[in-house]
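Handout, section 3.2

Students often ask what a structure token actually looks like in practice. Rather than define it abstractly, here is a full record for Adenylosuccinate synthetase. The first block is the sequence as you would receive it.
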Amino acid sequence: MTLTIVGSQLGDEGKGALVDRWGGDADVVVRYQGGDNAGHTVVEGGAEYKLSLVPSGAVRGTVGILGNGCVVNPKTLFTEIDDLRERGLDPDVRVARRAHVIMPYHRVLDGIEEEVKADDDAGDAVGTTGRGIGPTYEDKAGRRGIRIADLLDPDALREKLEYAVPQKRALVEDVYGLEIGDDDERAEAFDVDALHEEFAAIGERLADEEMTVNCADYLHRRSEAGDEILFEGAQGTHIDVDHGNYPFVTSSNPTAGAASVGSGVGVTTVGDGEVVGIVKAYLSRVGEGPLPTELDGDADEEALADDIREKGGEFGTVTGRPRRIGWLDLPMLRHAARVSGFTGVAVNHVDVLAGLDELKVCTGYGLEGEELDTVPTTTDRWERCEPIYETLDTWEPFDSSAVAEAGYDALPEAARDYLEFLADEIDTPIYAVGVGPDREETVELTNPFEE
Ligand code: GDP
Ligand code: IMO
Ligand code: MG
């Protein structure tokens, strides 16, 4: 059986926490898209782990796979593995030989393109994480990418670099009009010999540690042997390059269909399993783009956003940027539930909303005299949507550990009403409720591996 975990909103919904919780019942945890733009937090008995590439099952010792749909910065991967080893874990991570490699020039180009867009009236900076994600996926689609398999073959690697690197240098110098002199700190990113030496050595470490796999074949064999596979989505539905708020998106597909494409496990197998959308009980967004329910209208709203940001620790895991805050937006959740086919949802951060004076939920949008129940397709139209709110009862702070232990009925009545309202509106059952960051601070209604 498979379980696919998908971000329902704009990333940072608490996917890592649920992957860790349910990962205890999985035999393999697979990332199927994205790269080290992700920051997934696992808290176990007060110890906090922030993972960018190592799949979140590692904290429980479950083998982790970076699927063919991922873009991998091997240097980040090794640093993360080494750091986890120093903390006493022994992460077993395998990387698909078909996965694409984030090269140093991809990171440089990510930065340059963001600066150029910010300075150009016609361009819109996305507020990327600067990890080179977009440029790497561009090269993958442009059939000039470097794959993990190429790092294992020094001749193939040299050939690919000799083709790609002069093009990247020309892009920087001739299109963006920037000089990269020999003493520029970015010079090595455009030096074929230096890149070859560094990445051939990375290939040797990957080979020595037997870290590379034929992902589709490996997962097929594990599945045939009856093993349970957990797919760990990164990012979220509304920053999906196809289904999200284009162009303020990441360059991959966090939605559930990509679990199949990005791993080589057939769609029927993924579709036979469970697909759980992870929902934050309010909204947060890092980076640019509209947010119709954003709490930024006046000083009172800004104070409330500050309060939620502090209580919820809403600062980017990867970049440390403060996250923008908004009320829960049901049109966004309907879209997410439809495009991924959620069989259940887990709603996190219910503790963070305790003790508010007022609680609002957006049930639809008003646009040009019409009422919409889902998200329009363009940024321009979404930006002009006026949220239609319903005000619900608030609840008082509660003891998260005690509630998690006692179960769903121990939650304050108003919190249960809020959750049931949400579940009804998107016609999807609630599998779990997050009442704190720790593994034990989750109220579980259904364990998807036992469905
Ligand atoms: P991810 O990217 O979806 O894995 O989420 P992040 O790790 O970037 O951000 C979620 C943050 O919220 C982390 O600091 C988690 O430890 C924390 N968290 C997860 N679930 C809950 C919850 O139910 N309540 C609270 N207060 N924090 C939570
Ligand atoms: P997790 O997995 C939240 C956002 C960036 C930016 C846009 C594009 O932790 O939920 P990119 O570097 O991917 O090209 O940036 O996407 N973004 C995320 N926001 N959570 C994430 O990951 C994100 N990964 C990328 O802020 O707006
Ligand atoms: Mg995150």
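Discussion prompt for tutorial groups: The chain has a mean pLDDT of 96. How would you have guessed this from the sequence alone?
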